[in-house]
Automatic annotation (TrEMBL):
<feature type="modified residue" description="N6-(pyridoxal phosphate)lysine">
    <location>
        <position position="210"/>
    </location>
</feature>
<dbReference type="InterPro" id="IPR015421">
    <property type="entry name" value="PyrdxlP-dep_Trfase_major"/>
</dbReference>
<dbReference type="InterPro" id="IPR015424">
    <property type="entry name" value="PyrdxlP-dep_Trfase"/>
</dbReference>
<comment type="similarity">
    <text>Belongs to the trans-sulfuration enzymes family.</text>
</comment>
<protein>
    <submittedName>
        <fullName>Cystathionine beta-lyase</fullName>
        <ecNumber>4.4.1.13</ecNumber>
    </submittedName>
</protein>
<comment type="pathway">
    <text>Amino-acid biosynthesis; L-methionine biosynthesis via de novo pathway; L-homocysteine from L-cystathionine: step 1/1.</text>
</comment>
<dbReference type="GO" id="GO:0047804">
    <property type="term" value="F:cysteine-S-conjugate beta-lyase activity"/>
</dbReference>
<dbReference type="InterPro" id="IPR015422">
    <property type="entry name" value="PyrdxlP-dep_Trfase_small"/>
</dbReference>
<keyword id="KW-0456">Lyase</keyword>
<dbReference type="Pfam" id="PF01053">
    <property type="entry name" value="Cys_Met_Meta_PP"/>
</dbReference>
<dbReference type="InterPro" id="IPR054542">
    <property type="entry name" value="Cys_met_metab_PP"/>
</dbReference>
<keyword id="KW-0663">Pyridoxal phosphate</keyword>
<dbReference type="GO" id="GO:0019346">
    <property type="term" value="P:transsulfuration"/>
</dbReference>
<dbReference type="InterPro" id="IPR000277">
    <property type="entry name" value="Cys/Met-Metab_PyrdxlP-dep_enz"/>
</dbReference>
<dbReference type="GO" id="GO:0030170">
    <property type="term" value="F:pyridoxal phosphate binding"/>
</dbReference>
<dbReference type="GO" id="GO:0019450">
    <property type="term" value="P:L-cysteine catabolic process to pyruvate"/>
</dbReference>
<dbReference type="InterPro" id="IPR006233">
    <property type="entry name" value="Cys_b_lyase_bac"/>
</dbReference>
Length: 394
């Protein structure tokens, strides 16, 4: 069969006839108990409970199996584990591979709750975290210790958008510490724009709350692992009681079918808004992975197949508290809110001290006020008009 393109793959994913029962979509199977008619049937389910065989609701139903198979194929892995949120996917993936006395390395630009988990929970378990500069590249070799169990990456970084030199980091780790597990928070790429497992990263983690669901109406976490890690990851998720409900999982699977089309529109509108921002006299820099002003842009061009609607920009000067509020309080379309990846546009503002409090490496931001925006599916000209009015207000 001819190799299919990503748009076509996303239309087909998760629609194995095993799970669709003659419909277009997989069934939503809501059940806690699974009923066995014979002792032999129960024994078979018990022995194969890790392999898409119905065993007990917490371990997944046909709805979960359909979505897990879709994600495994999309991210080129050996298997997928589901969690109730992206944050749970991150913390459980890390916990699955560490013991007391271990050391882990985490990018100092990681999503804030990832850092908080390491600082507040791993510390209690006598697991030490060291943070590194996202642009460290092969220099990661100098930070590896004999007890470094995990290197945790995220590209682009949350908020500040730096992009790692992934092949250089992976190669340095594989040469010096081949047993170290490499994980990445791949939420920005949505499993489409970057394929971490093809770069020899062991586990690709995502918040499906973002682009995969795409409609800001449910929360779900995903970890796709390679052959070397899937068994441990899956067993630990069972031990820790992780599960997701079938309705939410169905919504995520539904999102996959329009993901390519939505991402292309977010990308096109995002670039239109980013390029308009670049021309504004008030703007110092636009941190959009597809623009040369983004740190690590050349790695983005090499390793990613496209961009989306999430990026940041920084002003030349620091806004006063009054200006900060005037800028943010009166948007028609950009509403302030955490999260992103839905159809709606969002904005968050940061002063220098806010950025410094989120970074655990030698990070020296300029004084200019900083904004992270998500460009949604509104017409980009309406979004530009909205931003133009905000600049007038200051
Ligand atoms: C939102 C987000 C998460 C957490 O996902 P939830 O589903 O909200 O728990 C993790 N990583 C990144 C990069 C995110 O943006």
């Amino acid at each position: 069969m001819a190799k299919i393109r990503p748009e076509t793959q996303l239309v087909h994913l998760g629609r194995n006839p095993k799970y669709t029962q003659k419909g277009v979509n997989p069934i939503i199977q809501r059940t806690s108990s699974v009923i066995f008619d014979t002792v032999e049937e129960k024994r078979h389910a018990t022995q194969n409970r890790a392999n898409s065989v119905l065993f007990y609701g917490r371990r997944g139903t046909q709805t979960h199996f359909a979505f897990q198979e879709a994600m495994t194929e999309l991210e080129c892995g050996a298997g997928t584990v589901l969690y109730p949120s992206g944050a749970a996917a991150i913390t459980n993936s890390i916990l699955s591979f560490v013991s007391s006395g271990d050391h882990i390395l985490v990018t100092g630009s990681a999503y804030d709750p990832t850092q908080n988990f390491c600082d507040k929970i791993l510390t209690k378990l006598n697991i030490k975290t060291d943070y590194f500069d996202p642009l460290i590249g092969a220099g990661i070799a100098e930070l590896l210790r004999t007890n470094t169990r995990i290197v945790f990456l995220e590209a682009p970084s949350s908020i500040t958008m730096e992009i790692h030199d992934l092949p250089a980091i992976v190669q340095a780790i594989r040469q010096q510490a081949p047993e170290t597990i490499i994980m990445i928070d791949n939420t920005w790429a949505a499993g489409v724009l970057l394929k971490p497992l093809l770069l020899d990263i062991d586990i690709s983690i995502q918040s499906a709350t973002k682009y995969i669901n795409g409609h800001s109406d449910s929360m779900l976490g995903i970890a796709v692992a390679n052959q070397r890690c899937i068994k441990t990851l899956r067993e630990n998720s069972y031990l820790l009681g992780q599960t997701a409900d079938p309705d939410t999982v169905y919504m995520a699977g539904r999102g996959l079918h329009t993901l390519a089309t939505r991402l292309k529109q977010h990308e096109s509108s995002g670039l239109t808004v980013a390029q308009w921002l670049e021309q504004r006299p008030e703007v110092e820099s636009v941190y959009h992975p597809a623009l040369p002003s983004c740190p690590g842009h050349s790695f983005f061009v090499r390793d990613f197949s496209g961009s989306n609607g999430l990026f940041s920009f920084q002003l030349k000067s620091r806004l006063s508290q009054q200006q900060f509020e005037d800028f943010l309080n009166h948007f028609s379309h950009f509403k302030m809110g955490y999260s992103w990846g839905g159809y709606e546009s969002l904005i968050l503002g940061y002063q220098k001290e806010d950025l410094l409090s989120m970074r655990q490496y030698d990070f020296q931001p300029n004084d200019g006020t900083f904004f992270r925006i998500h460009v949604g599916l509104e017409h980009p000209q309406d979004l530009i008009d909205d931003l133009a009015l905000a600049f007038e207000r200051i």
